[in-house]
Protein 1
Amino acid sequence: MKKLYGLFILFALMLVISACSDDSSGSGDSKDDSGESKDTGEVEIFSWWTGAGEEDGLLALIDLFEKEHDDIKVENAAVSGGAGTNAKAVLATRMQGNDPPSTFQVHGGDELNKSWVAADKMEPLNDLYGENDWMDKFPQDLIDMVSVDDEIYSVPVDIHRGNVMFYNKKVFEDNDIDIPKTFDEFFAAADKLQDAGIVPIALGDKEAWTATQIFENVLLGVLGPDDYIKLFDGEIDFDDERVVEAAEKFGKMLDYIDEDHASRNWQDSAQLVANGDAAMINMGDWAKGYFSNDLDLETNVDFGYFTMPETEDDFTIITDTFGLPKGIDNPDEVKEFLTFLGSTEAQDTFNPLKGSIPARVDADESEYDEYGTDAMEDFKNTRLVPSLAHGSAASEGFLTKADQAVNIFVTQKDVDNFISALQNAAPEM
Ligand code: GAL
């Protein structure tokens, strides 16, 4: 029933988009912006990895692939906006206009499965996994996130962790702050920092997902991983008293954010921490890539990291994956590109720059710094839970409404309204 509802929403979304779109030829040809068929010998990769902290890894991948394949050119079709804020809408338009990119960034979990697989827009890739001997090279949990009914629909290139708090080491040291493990310790540390005139938590919610990300990690801390998963499976209601408690704690965290949060994006807010204007930030570990590669900061010297309160044994997983859309002209070349994306060479080129860990189990650990090796260890020894803010835990329809509810909550802090907005959106999960 939930699946049918999700399909209905997707269909409705596509109708709206197609009504606004000029390209409704429905010819099934793969076209570029000028309306001409795409040349073979070219693979277009669609993502939202542009700018600082996002594109370094992608550009390195493209370079490496083109060096090894002088017969195939890669067209970088990235659309800016963290977490796919703009890219997802552009992608929906293109898919509806029968103009799919050769391959596109999509999160494993509901974003892939309830949107594009359910709409019958993706080719299964079991053969590719077989040919490349990948079945035991990717963790089964990850393969499950990109599979529906035993058909595998995409190739994971990374594993990001979302329940991380990055902090400025000097600010913590100067103010004698110990790493907080519980919510109580966290709020005590935040009070101390605030009293010292430092912004405790940097937030950049110009794009709402950054606040949704904090909320999901607070939910995880309060509910624990089993009930967090049950919540997004519809087995626990959003008006459960623990969800209300999480909303209250989330509201309390918002007492510690910077004033100009609504005008900043995630990089701007991470910069506040880098500069010491703010003490900490909850951000997926693409922030680690940004700190190391764009701001030249050193792990465990300039910045440190800890898990969000009471989520130490959990790993909020965000995996960026790429699949093969139906109806493209040159599937063999795209499969060659996907084969490359799944190789250890590509993953060990991309992930050290991105701040993520490789999706493969046999990558070269020596390519990663202490943050990376810690994350690899935790990935093996903690409980994996899907991220809401990054599309894995619930459908895009629910996520859109949850982002809106969070956005309103950040300014109004009305717990009752927030809970009822989530409750009303729940049938769309
Ligand atoms: C996530 C994505 C990451 C990173 C982040 C910020 O959704 O999985 O790779 O790009 O958004 O844009």
Protein 2
Amino acid sequence: MLAERAASSDAGEAGARLIDGKALAMGVRAGVARDAALLAARGVTPGLTVVLVGDDPASAVYVGAKERACREAGMNGETIRLSADTSEAELLAVIDRLNADPSIHGILVQMPLPSQIDADRVIRRIRPDKDVDGFHPVNVGKLLIGEKDGFVPCTPAGIMVMLEAHDVQLRGAEVVVVGRSNIVGKPMAALLMQHGVDATVTICHSRTRDLAEHTRRADVLIAAVGRARLITADMVRSGAVVIDVGMNRIPDASRSSGTRLVGDVDFDAVRQVASLITPVPGGVGPMTIAMLLRSTVRAAGRTVTPEGAGEGGAR
Ligand code: NAP
């Protein structure tokens, strides 16, 4: 954890310090590589298999990044690419094979899936002890009741590491999470309300009556919505810590691609009000893959000792 500390850069003039997600992720990945080497010395090379169905270009980019990151950490990273017309039964058969293969410690099915496949049925088919995404109901339940031996979804797990690295005080703090998805908002709230973390959590969504009324109370504001610049400066309390999970492509004629990536937070304006803030890109995003690797090493470690191995054993 020490290696991950204080990865932030000064705003220079007035304004929030930046939480440098890239630097923090490199720290996590270095720890993962050390743990992977320890396991390899004991004859177990941690292995992650990603299953990609169809040819969604964004999914292909994410999957490629995960495979590369595995290799860089000394792990086995494999992608199984299936055509867009794969049936649910065919995909479930692939999962059954991966479940039974002892050399594969983590299984991830890249979402979204084509419409003929029921994503919930697929998630439920993955063995909970290989479900490094933490989406299986067994792992969701373990998170909620505070059992530490489950897997936690990677994005909220990464946000916890970011907050800890910056010594953000969560005990008794007002934390407002905007968004209630199963992959970000809900597990984020569950992590923050655990005994020992002790934040007071408010979760907002599209039916929340007055969003700004809630966000203005937040010591820590976490936006996971998918709406460009939904969170404006007048919605943020002075000195708040702001975590921007959103990834939104907006038109930008000055770029050769014609688009640019922005978060859910109006960054330039909110930076003038907040004390700490994550940029997009370079904030939460890099942490997600790092935490996926950490979970895979932990799954592999459990095949050697029940507690897992080294840093990868910690949640
Ligand atoms: P999602 O499943 O679409 O959930 C969005 C949530 O935002 C929903 O709970 C929705 O409310 C709520 N919402 C929508 N409009 C709102 C509004 N005007 N006011 C308040 N709440 C509103 O999205 P997700 O999967 O959680 O992802 C959220 C964003 O994070 C996306 O931009 C995604 O690309 C990004 N993301 C980034 C990473 C990363 O690694 N950086 C990882 C995952 C996701 P309802 O429930 O009422 O519909």
